[in-house]
Amino acid sequence: TWTSESFADMTIQSLRLKLGNDRVVMALSGGVDSTVAATLVHRAIGDNLFCIFVDNGVLRKDEFEQVLHSYEDMGLNIKGVDAKAQFYAALAGLSEPEAKRKAIGRTFIEVFDQEAHLIQDVKWLGQGTIYPDVIESVSVKGPSATIKSHHNVGGLPDFMKLRIVEPLNTLFKDEVRAVGRTLGVPAHILSRHPFPGPGLAIRILGEVTPEKVAILQEVDALFINGLKKRGLYDEVWQAGTMLLPIQSVGVMGDERTYEQVVALRAVTSVDGMTADWAHLPYDFLAEVSNDIINRVKGVNRVVYDISSKPPATIEWE
Ligand code: XMP
Fold first, then answer.
1. I need a labelling partner for 93 at 20 to 30 A (CA). Which of 24, 86, 213, 264 fits?
2. Are residues 13 and 116 in the same domain?
3. Nearest CA to ligand 1 atom 18
């Protein structure tokens, strides 16, 4: 029978044989899959694993610093790269969702390629691909696969000439989490909700600017921290907030306001393929809504998304 302990032991041993003294480079995202994959490779070859974590300017509030610290605490050989300006430049003037995804994917590859070339003699590219990703990319002919392009599935340009190592490509998500627990990966990483590669860029409807990112980071932090405080975070599969490209009239004191609208989104799901909107308690929604409107300058209205997937998708873009 499969146990996470035996999987981890056997994988570490076979990685050691396969990789020998070779150097491996990996991009980490702060998510479960890339972190557990990196931990396995690190157990096998130590500091011959070079990890790169890119700040693309559309991460959650304080996420870059927090995740980087967690990785350092775990002993990974990790380099944080601040590429915010490069991503904002690539996103400037774009408002179409797929154009934004492509700009982010392209910029990510540029940044990663540049960083990887700074490491001498790299032979392998490590990836946190899991079994469902393999299935999804095999069945790309299906109608759903082309609805949204997920830039982080599908690998890197072949000019990098690296061999691929994917230690998790036979596992499902819950098995990945079990292996992570066995390896001592921190619980706050293992229990993280999925977060899209293009990050807040596809939750800011329309053009992305640093000012809009700053607003949405505050809104998102209030919602997510609220869920955690109320013990609701682990009850939902994914949660986030959208900055809508409209303004609405409000009133504050004697003043009329004309400000932004944000939407809260929380869903229950097994795998993200279908999802139901989470029936969060009304009093919790009321509290979060007040918090957001009182504390985030520029937002005067909060709505809750009660659409399920299908026909809606989880993200709005
Ligand atoms: P949708 O919006 O298609 O999302 O219902 C399903 C799951 O996929 C995530 N998602 C993405 N993940 N790159 C990613 O890495 C993307 O471009 C992307 N678009 C959506 C979404 O957050 C949800 O978990």
1. 264
2. yes
3. 196
Is the minimum distance from the CB of 196 to ligand 1 under 6 angstroms?
yes
Q: Are residues 173 and 249 in the same domain?
A: no
Q: What pLDDT does 150 receive? A: 54
Q: How far is the CA of 312 from the centre of ligand 1 (A)?
A: 12
d(CA 12, CA 220): 37
Q: Whose CA is nearest to atom 7 of ligand 1?
A: 272
Domain boundaries, position 78: 4-190
Question: Tell me, what CATH number does 140's domain have?
Answer: 3.40.50.620
State how many domains the chain has.
2
pLDDT tens for each residue of 201-233: 999 999 999 999 999 999 999 999 999 999 999
Same structural domain for residues 180 and 138?
Answer: yes
Same-domain pairing of 259 and 142: no
Residues 16 and 94 in one domain: yes
Indicate if 164 and 252 belong to the same structural domain. Answer: no
